[in-house]
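Structure ticket #2291
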Amino acid sequence: TQEENNTTAGATTTSDANTTTTSSSSLSSPSSGIELSPQPVYQERSRLESQTQINQTHVKITFSGNGTLNLPNSTEPIRTTSIGIGISSLVDGSFAGQVTLTTEDGSNNATAAVYELGQFNAQDLTGRGIAIAVFHTNSTGLLAPLDGMILAGQDEFLPDGGAFITYWEWNS
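Resolution: structure written out below.
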C-alpha cells in the first residue's frame, strides 16, 4: 500500500563493510543464467541526508555513506565514501539515481547509475530491496577496474533511515 511505502523508499543504495553477507549461491540460479562473483565486491552503510516530497507519489532523496570495495585481482580493500541522489516512488518502492564513490584520500572516483526495488514495513520503517548498479570512471588508479562493471545487490533498510547494502559483480 502507499502507506507501507511512505518511508525512505530506496533512500539508500549503499552498506557497511562489517555486514554479514549471504553466500553468492543463494543469489545465483543456474536456470536463469544469473551468475555473481563468489565474494562481495562492495559493502556500505549509508544514511539519509535529505528527503523532499516532489508530489503525491515521488520523493527526491539524498544519501551518503562509507564503504569498502574488494575489487577482483586486488589484495587490499579500498575504503570509500559516497554521495547519492535519486527519485523514489512511494507507490511501488522503486528508486533510480546516481551514486559517486570516492576513495578515502579523494584521489579517485567512480559514478554509478543505480536502480532498486524495495519492500517496506510502515510500522517499523524497515525493509529489504534488490539493486543493480552500473559503474563508470575515468580513473586510471585504484577505481579503474570499476569502469563498466555491473553489480547486483541486496539492501537492508533500517528504522533510522540508513541502510546496509552488499553488491556482487554480475558475471555474464
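Closing remark: Residues 36 and 170 are 5 Å apart (CA to CA).
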